[in-house]
Design a protein that fits this description.
Blueprint (H helix, E strand, L loop, with lengths): L1 H27 L3 E14 L15 E8 L4 E6 L1 H6 L5 E7 L2 E5 L1
Antiparallel strand pairs: 1-2, 1-4, 2-3, 4-5
Length: 105
């Protein structure tokens, strides 16, 4: 029974690793797309459980949802500086590659 549990855990870890590298591969070989977009919303995701010794900023993820000119919403993870610099309702040129945010100007 104990060996069975370890096999299940190993399979789950393997699937997560494959999924991670597939996402990197897909983003790397996608075209860089530039299009007009408007910032719809911004989301900050923090861990629910942390202790005082943890640096909370190291675990935060910043997301911005853009409305593309084709009326298609697209949510991308951005870095902290871009998250704070870009304001909701702003219209500009969005550059992205697959699910990778590149730039918004």
């Amino acid at each position: 029974m104990f060996k069975f549990i370890w096999k299940i855990i190993a399979i789950i870890v393997l699937l997560l690793v494959v999924r991670y590298f597939y996402r990197i591969y897909r983003n790397h070989f996608s075209k860089i797309i530039e299009c007009k977009a408007t910032v719809l919303s911004k989301d900050l995701v923090s861990p629910e459980h942390y202790n005082d010794s943890m640096d909370l900023k190291a675990y935060q993820h910043y997301y911005i949802t853009f409305m593309l000119e084709s009326d298609h919403p697209l949510t991308l993870e951005v870095d902290q500086d871009d998250y704070h610099f870009i304001k909701e309702g702003t219209t500009g040129i969005l550059s992205y590659q697959g699910k990778r945010y590149i730039e918004f100007k």
